[in-house]
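Q: What structure does this chain adopt?
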Amino acid sequence: MKALVYHGPGDKSWDEVPDPVLIAPTDAIVQVDTTTICGTDLHILKGDVPAVTPGRILGHEAVGTVLEVGESVTNVAVGDRVIVSCVSSCGTCTYCRSGNPSHCLADEGASGIGWILGHLIDGTQAEKVRIPFADTSLYALPDGVSDSAAILLSDILPTGFEIGVRYGRVKPGDTVAVVGAGPVGLAVIATAGLYGAAQIISIDLDPSRLALAQEVGATAGINSGDDDWKEQVLALTDGYGVDVAVEAVGIPATFDMCTRLVRPGGSVANVGVHGKSVELELDRLWIQNIAISMGLVNTTSLGMLLKLVAQGKLPVDKFITHRFALNELMSAYDTFGNAAETKALKVLISR
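A:
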């Protein structure tokens, strides 16, 4: 089969590789019908994720059709159309049982990390993929939910909701600022209303992304290139600052922005993937009684979000900006990696 293979920082190619095979009785082989590219894949290509070794097939998001199942698999069957969760969960270890499969202890390599696809084992940017723990890592897709909607449930919608909204402790009536209106930031914006946010302020450098943010749920947009961006946020919050500030970029400057926007007693939720250390000004922040959270998505909300998507309750149709054939993955990377010029958000890659 063909797959997108990582060969080291800055080096990838569309290669012929062996087909995946069942290894454990809990495995399934899935034909990849639709996949996409995540910002994390770009971090890998920059060398920010050293656990990804040369030769690895990238990708951790997919919608596909089950081709083969191991003898212990009972929840999915050959021919089923499924969503591949970006986190593989055994369902039985202490972390999975406590609702934290992002640290599954049974995943291959016993790494204590549930994100293994395209990270510690071969991933979804391929014609076929092996899925460990198929019963608890695949979700049957109901009729009427398109691939373009379902692909967002592999990663970005659960990530935005769980790490941005839930970890950020959003409550009814809160004002939420989301710094970064890329795909995951937009996912935070689209789901913050589920917990009753009264105001959702989108902050970004790109006017087109700010406009889209208001289409998916933001009540205001502020260009972070403006000298008075902080004053604009304060003007929307009676001078107090926001209840929840969500960092959705992954660079020191945007994390610092969040710590300067949050009011005393509020929360900073870091969603972005950082490739280098960020300074935490405890000498300034300790007295403000703020909570700072961060984490890897568990995808425990995937089933619930799927129900909302199936009923048209989330604006998922707004997220897909570009479409490619599977054999155009290299071009898709060029488009996604140059989002400032191409205006790319999520790129849909289908067979």
